[in-house]
Design a protein that fits this description.
By secondary structure, the protein is an alpha+beta fold. It folds into two domains: about 210 residues, Metalloenzyme, LuxS/M16 peptidase-like (Cytochrome Bc1 Complex, Chain A, domain 1, 2-Layer Sandwich), CATH 3.30.830; about 190 residues, Cytochrome Bc1 Complex, Chain A, domain 1, CATH 3.30.830. Helix content is about 45%, strand content about 20%. Helix 1 runs parallel beside helix 13 and helix 11 runs antiparallel to helix 12. The longest helix is centred in the first third of the chain and has 20 residues. The chain is globular and about 60 Å long. Keywords: Hydrolase, Metalloprotease, Protease, Signal, Zinc.
Amino acid sequence: MKKSIMALGSLLVLGAAHAQKVEFEEFDLSNGLHVILHQDKSAPVVVTAVMYHVGAKDENPERTGFAHFFEHLLFEGTENIERGQWDKIQAAHGGTGNANTTDDRTYYYELFPSNNTELGLWMESERLLHPVINQIGVDTQNEVVKEEKRMRVDNQPYGNLFAEVKKNMFKVHPYRWATIGSMEHLDAATLEEFLAFNKKFYVPNNAVLVVAGDIDTKQTKKWVEQYFGVIKKGEPVVRKKYEEAPITQEFHASYEDPNVQTPMIVEAYRTPAMTTKDARVLDLISSILSDGKSSRMYKKIVDDKKMAMQVGAFNYSQEDYGLYFVYGIPMAGFTTQQIQKEIDDEIVKLQTELVSEKEFQKLMNQVESRYVSQNASVDGVAENLATYYMLYGDVNLINTEIDIYRKITREDIKAVANKYLKPNQRLILDYLPAQEKAEN
């Protein structure tokens, strides 16, 4: 009976995933703007989103933080939206919006009731066509970004972890600096430099527009042409390719953080680009090691042996390279070295033994469930459509990427663990309380 219920549950998940195929239409405007339309009549809302192919990796090494800074700066206003009015216009029409930045892209969106679809399109076209970039806005957002850095990085326990790993793992690639960048670089930047950054990257041929939700497709196309078609095409963005030398010997680094009282041990490995099959296999390895209380590392190190208060593994995939993190925070009475040994034992198991059929089936059920949840909301669908176009070069991966995961085998997991998670290919970072560095 239990097996029948489990089998039925699996079929329901598979059925839901199959039923959730995302229909879309895509086309290009004459200025190079790629447009993706997705109609979903299930709720009277529409997301208008624009993703620009510009992130921290596109910055001048002496002016880091520009991409993230623009995420804030371009809410300052336009020639037709007065300074300070952007959020008020959204709220007055029942809408919301936001933006976020990574090393690879910057994403802006508006979410409105569907009767304000035109308003969302106009606002995003204004951001692209008529942004007001002046010294008042730069000075204002400089203070906002500084406060964000203080809250999310400088005063946050383990807040500099990611930046320290990136700094050590990348020697030539622009991934080596933090997305939020350097406050000193932003302070030193001139208004002309901000204007030049906007002119170079915020052009229609470096962007994708997604309109998703309760739309009239024919009318939406007219509005897209009306508001975005008049924007001039920019110069092609030419990117330099950076190639890192392979890591062939384990190396060590340490960092003192005055915000923490307990040390953390971190293992970091450089991994392939997000578009590869191996990157997807590494996602599955993360699930095996640390996804939930029944995962291997949590059950053994936290639950059974009670050696660590926290352990984790995750694959951070990006456009050019990825990073694979494994970390642990010991309980009182245990050392980071002891935690590292337990972690390494679990990795060796993956490298030497096939995952059991039962564990593998559970893993694939988790994959199916995540696939369903990722496309469960119209804003999630909009961002996925933009991402698959911009960073993967294939919009239909929103429907077919699940098939890539389904074709992964237990043998693939073992092979990829052996290929990328070798001791001689990693950084060991001791993330320490400031006062304890001398003791360790």
